[in-house]
Amino acid sequence: MGNVKPLKILYVCSELAPLVSTGGLADVAAALPRALSAQGHDVRIALPCYAALPPHLRGRPHCLCVADLGAKTAYGALHIATVPGTGIPLYLIEHEGYFGRKNPYGYGAYEYEDNAERYCFFSLAVLHGVAQTHWRPDIVHCHDWHTAAIPAYIKTRLAMTEAWRGMPTLLTIHNLAYQGRYKARFLPYTGLGADLFRPDCLEYYGDINLMKAGIAFASRINTVSPRYAKEIQTPEFGEGLDGFLRTRANSLSGILNGVDYTQWNPAIDPHIAAKYSVEDLSGKAACKTALQKMFDLPRRDVPIIGMVTRLHWQKGIDLVAQTIDEIMLNDLQVIILGTGDPYFADMLSEAAQRYPNRMRLILKYDNVLAHQIEAGSDFFLMPSHYEPCGLSQLYSLAYGAIPIVRHTGGLADSVHPLRKAKGERTKDKKRKQGAAPASSLVRHPSPTGIVFKPRTSEAIAESVRRAVELYHDPEALHTVRLAGMNEDFSWDRSSEAYVKLYRQAIAKP
Questions:
Q1: CA 118, CA 25: separation in Å to the nearest integer?
Q2: What average pLDDT does this structure show over 115-141?
Q3: Closest among 250, 279, 253 to 267, alpha carbons compared
């Protein structure tokens, strides 16, 4: 690291793979600190001590944590452990009443009523407990609404304490749709002063909004892709906070998430039928055959389109359900893995019954199966209405499953579009099935996927037709596949961008 002083970083989050995970936040929380640690920085992670954490991973108790929430005082304990498989210290905040529950946030679509109190306790307990370790970070890195109150605590009630006076903070917004918005009656259980309940801070249409408080007080704010940082400052994607975010535009930026290539790399992946790489793609065909055999699909030379997704509106699953019959007019096979909204699950289940020889729906989350679908698919569909970053398209690029994505957020930042030839019709419902001549595909500089803009089922159907055409042009298919596999989205690059952002925050806390 030359003469540049390594940083001490307190990384505070509500999820950490593989200990507790409901999505991409946990993967980022696992990968980014490892990359920072590898660069020589002193990173320490703080996490709630959920009931799901095995006792042997909970480390040793270090001190009592006291959180004055206002209407009540809550007591917990700080345990010091180590992130499995690393040397990174892990601070676990134990409180049986708040975190001794089966699920981290709630049951199904219903969150726990006291979530504001739970995560405000966690945030205050982290600050109280870490201060007793006598280790003082250079910056506190907070993630999403669950820890967004920390910048507010540091700038207000803890502003004059020895441990936290002048402490810079970074707030990373992984998905602005989740803001920690609660009725005003919960304010006395947050530890945030009533004087902060105002429009330029915590108040939001008569409610409290923890994300808004973080935006107001954080030294710097970032999102998980450059495009999403711009999108959330517009009414379409700002979730009601676009105007407030624009007031902090000079402190807002975007850094694209990375890929942990020790976990997502077809050359070393233990979960797939055959290993392969850009130097030798033969294993890709073996993985496809294994996938067809696994799901009892006819072993035919047709494109497989895979999806590993939450069955949620954000992911564009509503558009897929609406257009599945048109998609299936093509000679292809479709495999969808995911859980979520029962309404969409029922629609897709009915479709799978209509196409018993060409479509499979697996209603669960299975990490191993996700690897196998990436490896065995020719294309990977992500038609998200919005996507802060997305990780699956990055995995797909690495595995040679050419992404079919909508032009939004991190999808637009990470997938280079395959252009259509001049004059090629974009919509032709009478187009016959079959191969397209190679001349119909323009060799855009390093195209890596198929990208569409309209948020419509028709756009998805058209993009799938283009994918089928690409499949039947072996030279173009090979070129696009290799371009994607040669992309580098390692955390090394992203972590360097975070270090630069940390230093900016430290310079102007």
A1: 19
A2: 98
A3: 279
